Amino acid sequence: MSERIPETPHLTERELLVLALVSKGYSAKEVAQELRIAPRTVEKHIDHVRLKIRARNRTHMVAQAISRGLLAE
Questions:
Q1: Alpha carbon distance 32, 2 (integer Å)
Q2: How far apart, in whole angstroms, are the C-alpha atoms of residue 60 and residue 64?
Q3: Kindly report the CA angle at 64 between 1 and 50, in degrees rounded to 5?
Q4: pTM
Q5: What are the C-alpha distances in Å from 61 to residues 8, 17, 30, 36?
Q6: Three-class secondary structure assignment of the chain
Q7: pLDDT digits (tens, 9 = 90+) for 2-45
Q8: How far apart are CA 45 and CA 15, in angstroms?
Q9: Residue 63 contacts residue 54 (beta carbons within 8 Å)
Q10: Phi, psi (degrees; rounded to nearest 5) at 53
Q11: For labelling alongside 3, which of 30, 35, 41, 45 has CA 20 to 30 A away?
């Protein structure tokens, strides 16, 4: 049985930036400080990325992003 490769979702520049920082281990609060935005806004970006990638949690989101070529390993 061959595994179908899921299509790569379109992520905004801000979503990609938040994803990259989360993949480096930054908390939502740390991402917010780095980008000078509210922590709740960061959480919204994370939720949007997670939904677009269809990930169960942040760890799965980062793993999926790497496997889809959205992040460098």
A1: 41
A2: 6
A3: 125
A4: 0.86
A5: 13, 14, 18, 23
A6: CCCCCCCCCCCCHHHHHHHHHHHCCCCHHHHHHHHCCCHHHHHHHHHHHHHHHCCCCHHHHHHHHHHCCCCCC
A7: 555 567 789 999 999 999 999 999 999 999 999 999 999 999 99
A8: 6
A9: no
A10: -85, -15
A11: 45
